[in-house]
Amino acid sequence: MSEGRWTYLSDMDGVLVREEHLVPRADEFLDELRSNEIDFLVLTNNSIYTPRDLRARLLRTGLDIPEESIWTSALATAKFLASQRPNGSAFVIGEAGLTTALHEVGYVLTERDPDYVVLGETRTYSFSAITRAIRLIEGGAKFIATNPDATGPSVEGSMPATGSVAALIERATGRSPYYVGKPNPLMMRSALRRLGAHSESTLMIGDRMDTDVHSGIEAGLQTILVLTGISNEESVESYPYRPTKVIGSVADLIGRTLDPFGEG
């Protein structure tokens, strides 16, 4: 696997940062990608923030990642909808990351007869907005969700996320959403198109077997699982698929970014 030049896709939380703190030597890892002129994108299922917001948050941890190197489920959702129904309309439950992405592809946000109901992440899910979404879906709007994550982290502990609210709406309407974010390989493929890269020469670094590794494998990528986030070595054995490689953290790739699967 040492032939040619690799392109890197990397999850953000659990790989580069953990609970708003830098994963040790993640900054050195990214510096090496840049010095070796290796193309990369940082991916996140979180749809709350715009790439500009995320860049500012990452800078506070010590990571300098340009906006154009950040790819969110909100951006992937907007790209998907623009390809399905150009200049369409949507009723959105979400934050600026999602509404901005949809505006930028020419979508109109409306509560009146929208083409889609689009559910994303927010810290303040409104019962009235959820009720409105249910009624619009019952009226014929298609149901889209940015990602299936059931919970998200907070200082106090787990909090309900997109997947949990989507389940509520699905139970009320009998309509299942189409999830764009990981583990849907569509997220990986849209990232590849963003970079102009090919699956055969791209690897995905993630901390979760059920999203990062799953979607990477389905998109035809090589996969690296790091043990600085959700999954551990024991949990790997419970899945019917395996990552290409398991490492402690991205620090283990320093000095090896040109040949990440080489011996030694």
Automatic annotation (TrEMBL):
> What keyword terms does UniProt attach to this protein?
Carbohydrate metabolism, Hydrolase, Magnesium, Metal-binding
Essential cofactor(s): Mg(2+)
Sequence positions that bind Mg(2+): 11, 13, 207
Give me the Gene Ontology terms describing cellular component: cytoplasm
Query: Which GO molecular function entries does the Swiss-Prot or TrEMBL record give?
Result: metal ion binding; phosphatase activity
Annotated InterPro entries:
HAD-like_sf, HAD-SF_hydro_IIA, HAD_sf
Q: Which residues bind substrate?
A: 182
Active-site feature positions: 11, 13
Q: Does the keyword Nuclease apply?
A: no
Give the matching Pfam families.
Answer: Hydrolase_6 (PF13344), Hydrolase_like (PF13242)
Query: What does the entry comment about cofactor binding?
Result: Divalent metal ions. Mg(2+) is the most effective.
Claim: Metal-binding is one of the keywords in the record: yes
Q: What PANTHER family does the annotation carry?
A: 4-NITROPHENYLPHOSPHATASE-RELATED, HALOACID DEHALOGENASE-LIKE HYDROLASE DOMAIN-CONTAINING PROTEIN 2
Spell out the family assignment given in the record's similarity comment.
Belongs to the HAD-like hydrolase superfamily.
Protein name listed in UniProt: HAD family hydrolase
